[in-house]
Amino acid sequence: MLKRVTQSFFILCLMISASACARGLPELTDLIEQNSPAVVKINTVERARATRGVPPQYQQQIPDIFRHLLEPRGRERRPAASMGSGFIISDDGYVVTNNHVVDGADQVVVTLTDRREYDAQVIGTDARSDLALLKIEADDLPTVRWGESDELQVGEWVVAIGSPFGLDYSASAGIVSAMGRSIPNESRENYVPFIQTDVAINPGNSGGPLFNLDGEVVGINSQIYTRSGGSIGLSFAIPARLAQDVVAQLRDKGRVDRGWLGVGIQDVDRDMAKAMGLARPSGALVAQVESGAPADEAGILAGDIITRFNGERIVEQGDLPHVVGQTRPGAEVPVDLMRKGKSVRLQVTVGALPGEEEPAQQASVDPSNDIGGRLGLVVEEIPAAVKQRWGVESGVIVKQVVPGKPGARAGLRSGDVVAQLGFEEVKDLEDFRRVAKSLPSDELLPIRFFRGGQPTFRTIQIDE
User: Fold this and answer.
1) Domain count, the chain
2) Residue 50 above 90 pLDDT?
3) pLDDT tens readout for residues 341-376
4) Residue ranges making up the domain that contains 420
5) Out of 129, 149, 170, 206, which one is annotated catalytic?
6) Do residue 338 and residue 292 come from a single domain?
7) Does residue 367 sit within a domain?
8) Looking at the predicted structure, is the pLDDT value of residue 146 above 70?
9) pLDDT digits 0-9 by tens, 317-349
C-alpha cells in the first residue's frame, strides 16, 4: 500500500514538474507565422573570370610565395554562387542583410516566401558593421518591426528565421547568452558590440533577423563560432540599435560616418588598476595617442585610463571603439579618465574615421560610362589622416568603384589604398594614371592594396 502511494505521489510530482516546465516555455508559432513573410532568401552570383597565365616577361618578377596564385588553370572558372538571408524593412522594397552575403557579387536575387523573385540593387554596404542595404522594385510588401536591442537581457528567449544550408525559412530558438561581445573583423577593427546567443545559426542564416518574443527584430545574425562548419551553440548578431543607424545612413547618403578618437588602447590588469587608484580593473588604457588626432587635441595622454566616454561606462578596452564609432563626427563630448591616480574630465571633439568620407559602394553608377577609366576606379591622393593612421606613405585611395569593371571584379572597395598595379609601384595619382594606361589587356596581373592598414595581393584583368 505504501509502495503504491509512493508511486502515485512520484507520478503526480512528475506531472506537476512537466506542467511547470511547459508553462515556462514560450509559444512561438504565431511569432513565426506573422514574421516569416518578411524574411527573404538571398542568392548571389559572381560571374566567371578567365584564368590566364602571367606573361613570360613578368614571371621572374613575381615573388615565389605568390606564383602559385597566378599559374594558368587552363579553363574558365565557373561562376561563384552563395546564399544568405535578409528581411524587408519597408513595404516599398528595402531589404537588410549582411555585407559579406553580397560582397563581390555581380548579381543579387531576393526570393520571398511566396516564391516571387526580384533582382536587387545594392544601395550601400558597410564592411565595418557587416551590413548591407538592398532595394527591390515591389510594393505592398510585408515588413518587420525594429525592437530595442538595448533592453535585451541575458537569458531572454530569441528566435531566428533564415535559410540555413539553403533550407528556406527555417526557424530556430534559444536564449541570449551574453551581450556586448567584442569580435574584431579581418582588418582588426571592432565597431560592433555583438549579441551572443545559443540559437542554432548555420551557413545561409547570415543576414537574417533575430526576433524577441514580441516579434521585433533585435539583431541581425552575422557570425558563428565553429570548428566543424555547423552550429555549436555560439552565434553572434549585430544589435538592432546599431543596425538602424547604419541602415539609415546607407539609405540617406550611401555611406556610414563614424567617430574617431585616434588612440591605441589596451585592457587594464589588476596591478595597473591598483597603481592608478581604481577599485577594480576597468576602462581602456591609452597606450598611444596619434599626433594631431582628436584625442591629442583634447589633451588625452598615453597612460590615461578612459573610464567613461560621452556618459557611457567603459568596462573593457573593446567598449571604447563601440561607443566612439557610434558618435557623430564633429560632436563635442565629455571624456572621464584616471590620470596619475586622479579623476580628470576633458572635452573632445570627435573626428571622422579615415576612409569613411565617400559612399561604401556606388551601385547606381552606369558601367557603360567611362567613369574610372580602364579599371573602373575613381581614385584620389591619400588624405594625410589616412597616411598617418595606416602608416602608408604612397599610393592612391579608391573613392568609387564601378560595378562590373576590372576593379570591382578584383574585389576592390571604396577606401582601399592602391600601392601597386601590375609590377609597378604606384606612388601618387600621376603614377596611377600612367601605369593604368599602359597595362596590357586580357592578362591576369597582380594588384597590391591596403585595406584597414593591412596589405593585400589580388589579381586584376582588363578585358578589352
Assistant:
1) 4
2) no
3) 889 999 999 998 865 444 434 434 444 445 678 898
4) 373-460
5) 206
6) yes
7) no
8) yes
9) 889 999 999 898 999 999 999 988 889 999 999
Selecting among 85, 103, 129, 130, the annotated active-site residue is 130
Would you call 130 a catalytic residue per the annotation?
yes
Residues 208 and 295 in one domain: no
Nearest alpha carbon to residue 445 among 454, 430, 426, 391: 426
- 206 catalytic? Reply is yes
Q: State the SS3 of the chain.
A: CHHHHHHHHHHHHHHHHHHHHHHHCCCCHHHHHHHHHHEEEEEEEECCCCCCCCCHHHHCCCCHHHHCCCCCCCCCCCCEEEEEEEEECCCCCEEEECHHHHCCCCEEEEECCCCCEEECEEEEEECCCCEEEEECCCCCCCCCEECCHHHCCCCCEEEEEECHHHCCCEEEEEEEEEEEEECCCCCCCCCCEEEEECCCCCCCCCCCEEECCCCEEEEEEEEECCCCCCCCCCEEEEEHHHHHHHHHHHHHHCCCCCEECCEEEEECCHHHHHHCCCCCCCCEEEEEECCCCHHHHHCCCCCCEEEEECCEECCCCCHHHHHHHCCCCCCEEEEEEEECCEEEEEEEECEECCCCCCCCCCCCCCCCCCCCHHHCEEEEECCHHHHHHHCCCCCEEEEEECCCCHHHHCCCCCCCEEEEECCEECCCHHHHHHHHHHCCCCCCEEEEEEECCEEEEEEECCCC
Residue 328 CB-half CA count within 13 A: 5
What pLDDT does 450 receive? Answer: 86
CATH of the domain at 445: 2.30.42.10
Q: Establish whether 370 is a catalytic residue.
A: no
pLDDT above 90 as % of the chain: 43
C-alpha cell at 79: 561562376
- What is the percentage of the chain residues whose pLDDT exceeds 70? 82
Catalytic member of 85, 100, 129, 231: 100
Phi-psi region of 84 (alpha: psi -120 to 50; beta: other; left: phi over 0): beta
